[in-house]
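Run: sequence + S-adenosyl-L-homocysteine -> complex structure.
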Amino acid sequence: MYDLLSMTPSELSELMQAWGEPAFRAKQIFGHAMQGIPPAEMTTLPKALRTRLAEECLFPLPSIEQKLTSAVDGTVKYLFRLHDGECIESVLMKYRHGNTLCISCQVGCRMGCRFCASTIGGKVRDLLPSEMLGQVILAARDSGERVGGIVMMGIGEPLDNFDNVVRFLHLVNHKDGVNIGYRHISLSTCGLADGIRRLAEVDLPITLSISLHAPTDEARGEIMPVNRRYPIAELMAACTEYFAKTGRRISFEYALIAGKNDTPAEAERLAALLHSTVGADGAPVHVNLIRVNAVKETGFHGTSARDAAAFAERLSRLGINATVRRRLGSDVNAACGQLRRAHAGKEA
Ligand code: SAH
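>> structure
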């Protein structure tokens, strides 16, 4: 069976050739598939081709298991059910300049970050490119609005599902399909340095975000087990290479945890780290500060708005661009992994 929504136009061309169909059918099929139209309903195709596609291809669009709309800011959180019954989350965020969808790339996660709800039950499986596209298609269809940007910041570690993620990026960017510009796509990683280097080789003009969260190996190792495999020096070296290769600005995510990583001394260490590593090579860096979302299992609490602003101000004074991110959808469990967990708990 072919996974239709994971196939590129050139793979579809090859398939059409093998089936003795004219080449232009590939473009038609791709265009329909990317709108979430199943083979049986691709009415511009001859009946026989539709039937053959329906017989030989899987077309597993997710279904909406639950949907929560924030009364505060209109953020929509979707819990999607996949063909095998597993659930994942996506969050549609509405900004003045357009809608951005935060998508998941794995069912669960095996990275073990201590503040994160997505990793609590470990990783169940990787998502296919079609299942990442399915989130984009369904969110657009359900909201009736265009998804103009994507952030890979939902459940899972994108660089731990490298090939499927890169294939998804190519597909979602394709002009005959969803057509989302690479510059409107961000990929966030907990810091798999090898994956960052591989991504640099692929050389897509997307924005890379690094979940740094602490400026020293000691502090980072305590909250992010991945730091034992890729310590900060190695991570920063990979970031420097990434910038050298792609010329793209790198963003650092820093979740402020009350009493853990939010002191003035930590801000100073963070600025010194960035200046002496990626910044030293001339790469423009940006720090996104987010007050950690409390997850009941983790016991961590977010820094106050006032202390977060002071942390940002201190970084800026030290020459590091920093902004405190708005918290969207705080009333709809918008922090990744929380809805899936709540749902699993109900079924158990
Ligand atoms: N695995 C990737 C992408 C998914 S997590 C990564 O680690 O970057 C997306 C972002 O949300 C990361 O920066 C992650 O550290 C952050 N995050 C996870 N749990 C959080 C929480 N409870 N509060 C605030 N940010 C959190």
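>> summary
The radius of gyration is 21 Å. Residues 113, 115-116, 153, 157, 188-190, 211, 253, 255, 290, 292-293, 295, 335-336 surround S-adenosyl-L-homocysteine (CB under 6 Å).
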